[in-house]
Write a structure and sequence with these properties.
heterodimer, A: 73% helix, disordered N terminus, B: 103 residues, mainly alpha
Chain lengths: 557, 103
């Protein structure tokens, strides 16, 4: 999951898709900074290590199951770290630290909103996802429905999410590299594109998972280290920390209580819905549930992921609070040394400045490298999910009607990831000067409105028919996209119109109920012979969902 | 994989017992999480001052922070509770049912 990155990036992803545009300054373009040798060297080491892993993974990737789901051979703990890695982006680190730095407790409220979807996924979804799924989430939605129709719409939903998300990450990477490494925008876009294609094409899910695990450990370790070094300056005393923060912040005591959050309840509720259920509809997160051998391990992975995410959010909040005093009172981190002025590099820099303040250039370089590695890992997961939607859903099951051989399917998947890489680089360059802040919000909106309703209904509601699934998906997809396009984020900010046509930027509160309603309506009015058969097939699906009997197992190696 | 096996599983009274127990447990936990979260959001929306109460009389640090961290911790522990029961008690019944159905 995710959000923004630096200035643009953090804005692009983080704050903007949080939608309330609280601490969000104007995103705009970032200034290229001086070349950061430490960061470049450490990032280079990361790249070498991950290439080594890809080489190792490539040798173990033989079957379609290896390629799409690591042969079901990932343990619960490993998968939990990988899921956490998918969820914690550079935006989490930079955007949420910045939000706590500027807004105090409101930043932590955001963290809690991002977090609360996880227990839900654990109790309601994890077990059934694992028991019913194989390679993509369309395996579940099309289980008893019309393969070709349902997979087509699921693939469209997945690809929409993947493309929007990729653009946001690409643009974020470009801005981040200018800011943290002091290199040109296009270099980042090309590096990210090339690396993502290498990981996915050669290493499949095994490589992608391990890249994600390493990145999660680096991010957790790096963040925790910076937080401890910073907290040490306050004698590990929370009272001292907050006292100083209140003294040194323009907001003063307001840091200690909720502020502008929820000043607009519709947006806030819509945002939480989108976060909570969007997470449960992201194709690259859902795929992770198929990499473990059984429901037991799937549950364990959510347990580990929930711990990592919750812990990291708390670390990030403490970093933000510490930065108020450590960064906020040091003129070195402000433009022209003016404490009342702007932070060097933009409003999403508190985490980086804090790293520099407590650990010197080494620590700054390390955290910068981790932030960039994070984008790389998230992008690889997305690319694999997109390539799988094309090869497994569209090619193997829609075009070839299930008659394609494994080798053909994998070949198509590899070519698709290459095409996705090229498209991502081209779009990344095309959108360099655009405000793509809305794109992650859009990705979550589509995931929550197009993918999630049909997925959960197919698992829980006997009455869902193919027609209902198609109606629901299309209604969710179209309404989520329309709402974002007609809202301020696109209509005014991107297209330059004067007033937004639709007053709210977060689509979920409108598009999700609409998707559910259309799925229901399409199903209950469907009395075709096919619908009768589909409803009858629920019984067997239900037993498999509950017991895991007949579920795709771990590949025997 | 065959429908016959699914049929046998479905007809096993233990299957109903498993579903009833596990669903009740899962939905209870879900309700508790959503309930606490909802109350928290309501306090944030309608009575934010309440959360500004200092932890120590005369201190600065507000109770908002430990409450937030406590929620994160509690929800995580609840996922742990679910895993513990699902991976032992429920899975034991589950494998018994499957064993009975394929023999």
């Amino acid at each position: 999951m995710t959000r923004g990155m630096l200035k643009f990036a953090a804005i692009a992803l983080a704050i903007s898709w949080m939608g309330l545009a609280m601490a969000a300054p104007d995103v705009g373009q970032v200034q290229k900074q001086a070349i950061n040798i430490h960061a470049i060297v450490m990032f280079f080491i990361f790249v070498m290590a991950t290439l080594g892993i890809t080489y190792w993974a490539a040798k173990r990737t033989k079957t379609a199951s290896d390629y799409y789901s690591a042969g079901g051979g990932i343990t619960g703990t490993q998968n939990g770290l990988a899921i956490a890695g998918d969820y914690m982006s550079a935006a989490t680190l930079l955007g949420l630290t910045s939000m706590t730095y500027f807004q105090g407790f409101d930043g932590y409220i955001y963290c809690i909103c991002f977090y609360v979807g996880w227990p839900f996924i654990m109790f309601i979804m994890a077990e059934r996802l694992r028991n019913l799924g194989k390679f993509t989430f369309a395996d579940i939605t099309s289980y008893r429905l019309d393969q070709r129709q349902v997979r087509t719409i699921a693939a469209i939903g997945s690809l929409t999410v993947v493309i929007f998300y990729l653009i946001a990450q690409m643009v974020g990477a470009g801005q981040l590299i200018k800011l943290l490494f002091g290199l040109d925008y296009w270099i980042a876009v090309v590096i990210v594109g090339v690396m993502m294609v290498i990981y996915v094409t050669f290493g499949g899910m095994i490589a992608t998972t391990w890249v994600q695990i390493i990145k999660a450990c680096l991010l957790l370790g790096g963040g925790t280290l910076v937080m401890l070094l910073a907290f040490y300056q306050f004698g590990f005393n929370f009272e001292t920390l907050t006292q100083k923060a209140v003294e040194n912040s323009k907001k003063g005591l307001a840091l200690m209580a909720p502020g502008s959050f929820l000043s607009d309840p519709v947006t806030a509720v819509s945002l939480s819905l989108g976060l909570m259920f969007g997470t449960a509809g992201l194709p690259h997160i859902l795929m992770r549930f198929f990499t473990v051998p059984n429901a037991k391990e799937a549950r364990k992975s959510v347990f580990v992921a929930t711990l990592c995410v919750g812990f990291f959010f708390t670390v990030v909040a403490l970093m933000g609070l510490s930065a108020i005093t450590i960064v906020g009172t040091n003129p070195q981190y402000f433009e022209g040394g003016d404490l009342a002025g702007k932070l060097l590099g933009g409003n999403n820099m508190p985490a980086m400045h804090l790293a520099q303040a407590v650990g010197g250039n080494m620590m700054l370089g390390f955290l910068s490298a981790v932030a960039f590695a994070t984008i790389l890992a998230v992008v690889s997961g997305l690319a694999l999910a997109g390539a799988s939607a094309i090869s497994h859903d569209l090619y193997a099951n829609v075009i070839r009607r299930g008659q394609a051989t494994e080798a053909e399917e994998i070949r198509v998947s590899k070519s698709s990831s290459l095409v996705l890489g090229v498209v991502a680089v081209l779009l990344g360059i095309a959108f360099e000067k655009q405000n793509v802040a809305f794109m992650v919000g859009l990705a979550f909106g589509v995931a929550a409105s197009c993918n999630f309703p049909v997925l959960i209904l197919s698992m829980y509601w006997k009455g869902l028919t193919t027609r209902g699934a198609i109606w629901g998906s299309i209604a969710g997809l179209v309404s989520a996209v329309l709402i974002v396009v007609l809202s301020k984020a696109v209509w005014v900010t991107v297209l330059g119109n004067k007033d937004p046509i639709f007053p709210y930027e977060q689509p979920a509160i409108f598009s999700m109920p609409l998707a559910f309603f259309m799925a229901w309506l399409g199903s209950v009015t469907d009395s075709s012979a096919r619908a009768v058969k589909e409803k009858a097939a629920f019984e067997d699906q239900y037993v498999r969902a509950q017991t895991g009997f007949g579920a795709a197992g771990a590949a025997a190696h | 994989m065959s429908t016959a096996v699914y049929e046998r599983i479905r007809n096993n009274p233990k299957f109903d017992e498993l579903i009833a127990k596990r669903s009740r447990f899962a939905w209870t936990l879900t309700a508790v999480v959503l309930g606490i979260y909802f109350i928290f959001i309501m306090v944030v929306a309608f009575s934010p001052k309440l959360l500004a109460t200092p932890i120590w009389a005369g201190g600065t640090a507000s109770i908002a922070w430990p409450i937030g961290a406590g929620m994160i911790l509690l929800f995580w522990l609840m996922t742990g509770l679910y895993v513990r029961r699902a991976n032992s008690e429920f899975d034991d019944i589950n494998s018994e049912i499957i064993k009975g159905a394929i023999e």
